[in-house]
Amino acid sequence: MKLHFLGTSGYHPTRTRNTACLMLPELGIVLDAGSGLFRARDLLCTSELQIYLTHTHLDHVVGLTYLLDILHGGPVRQVTVHCDPEKRSAITDHLFHHRLFPVLPPFDLADLQPGVASAPGTGRLTVFPLRHPGGSLGFRFDWPGHSLAYVTDTTAAADAAYLPFLQGVDLLVHECYFPDGYEDRAELTGHSCLTPVAEVARAANVGELVLVHLNPLDETDDLLDLESVAGIFPRIRLARDEDVVEF
Fold first, then answer.
1. How many CB atoms are closer than 10 A to CB 94?
2. How far apart are CA 161 and CA 131, in angstroms?
3. Ordered structural domains, the chain, with CATH
4. Per-residue pLDDT tens for 98-111?
């Protein structure tokens, strides 16, 4: 199974990174709809597209406004956007307010709440709450022989409440906006520093850890010192836009 990283930046795009968006093309699954969603057009191969939103902050939903172009002439006939029902209005009344975006792209909205549900590809989706200003959701997908967890916009800790949902997952995609030393800022903004993320991966005994939602103010290739946490969790890498990870 292949996971495509369409956007790996937090907050705003950079010259090399777009904001949060991941895709499993063979299953028609998209995780978050940041500015990287425009890249989905070249990967569409299913008749249905299921978009799962962790929350409705702008850097995670702005790509919904690109759907008119993304879907044009492609194979997709049905798009469902799954989101927290309490945040529906952020999409319907604000993002697609007629003075901001007068033509509504063709998609349906479905409620997404903590619990267990079916997922495309005879899979199981587990949705769990995350601590973040305004709230966020984490996802775990399990298919026969494959498992994936996506955790973004939260403050990592070795004893985080979401840790049990990650146990033994093959691939953990976790945000890491800050290097170590910015713990106060991370707590204030609801984001994570490097060492606590590595501690989460070790405590959950995950197979591999890939870091996303990176700080857009640092555009260097080594914006996080992965060697400093190799003793905690060695199977770690930074995601870059258009990376593909097989799990």
1. 14
2. 9
3. 2-246 (3.60.15.10)
4. 999 998 999 999 99
Query: Residue 239 has which token pair?
Result: 């995601």
- DSSP state letters, the chain: -EEEEEE-BSSS--SS-PBSEEEEGGGTEEE--SGGGGGGGGG--SSEEEEE-S---HHHHGGGGGHHHHHTTSS--EEEEEE-GGGHHIIIIIIT-TTT--S--S-EEEE--SEEEEETTTEEEEEEEE--TT-EEEEEEEETTEEEEEE-SS---TT-TTGGGGTT-SEEEEE--B-TT-HHHHHHHT--BHHHHHHHHHHHT-SEEEEESB-TT--STTSS-GGGGTTT--SEEE--TT-EEE-
Q: What is the pLDDT of residues 172-215, one digit of tens each?
A: 999 999 999 999 999 999 999 999 999 999 999 999 999 999 99
Full DSSP string of 8-71:
-BSSS--SS-PBSEEEEGGGTEEE--SGGGGGGGGG--SSEEEEE-S---HHHHGGGGGHHHHH
Distance (Å, whole) CA 12 – CA 169: 29
One-letter amino acid identity for 178?
A: F
